[in-house]
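> call design_seq(struct)
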């Protein structure tokens, strides 16, 4: 019986690893640039992940002219994976992020971004459903990302 349980757990974990995604029902919590906690829940419809400075800059360029609360009103969470950022850069960049008119969830140790297979060169856009990631897109140009953002409806 114990062997069967271990096998089942192993198969489940292997499946998640192969898919590169954790179910949307697996909550995680990150702090934003103001040190306020955010926990993934069913209200989150889209997860945007930037794993590099260039992809984060692309997200910023696409949403900097949007009104405050634009992402939140549409059920979007933006995660910036800053694990690879040097400590000295974090000391300067994180306070600078406080001028943004949108919430930036800081993945300081890469524990959240690593749940979702992605690369450092593109912005990852994950549409979430009750069973996990329902659809994935990747953006490397501002026009396409702005178009996707414009297509978001209020919750």
């Amino acid at each position: 019986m114990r062997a069967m349980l271990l096998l089942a757990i192993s198969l489940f974990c292997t499946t998640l690893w192969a898919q590169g995604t954790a179910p949307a029902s697996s909550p995680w919590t990150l702090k934003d640039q103001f040190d306020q906690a955010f926990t993934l829940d069913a209200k989150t419809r889209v997860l945007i992940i930037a794993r590099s400075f260039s992809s984060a800059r692309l997200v910023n360029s696409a949403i900097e002219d949007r009104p405050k609360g634009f992402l939140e009103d549409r059920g979007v969470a933006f995660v910036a994976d800053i694990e690879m950022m040097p400590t000295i850069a974090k000391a300067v960049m994180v306070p600078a992020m406080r001028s943004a008119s949108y919430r930036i969830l800081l993945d300081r140790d890469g524990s959240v971004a690593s749940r979702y297979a992605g690369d450092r060169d593109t912005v990852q856009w994950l549409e979430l459903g009750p069973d996990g990631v329902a659809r994935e897109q990747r953006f490397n140009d501002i026009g396409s990302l702005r178009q996707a953002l414009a297509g978001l409806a209020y919750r």
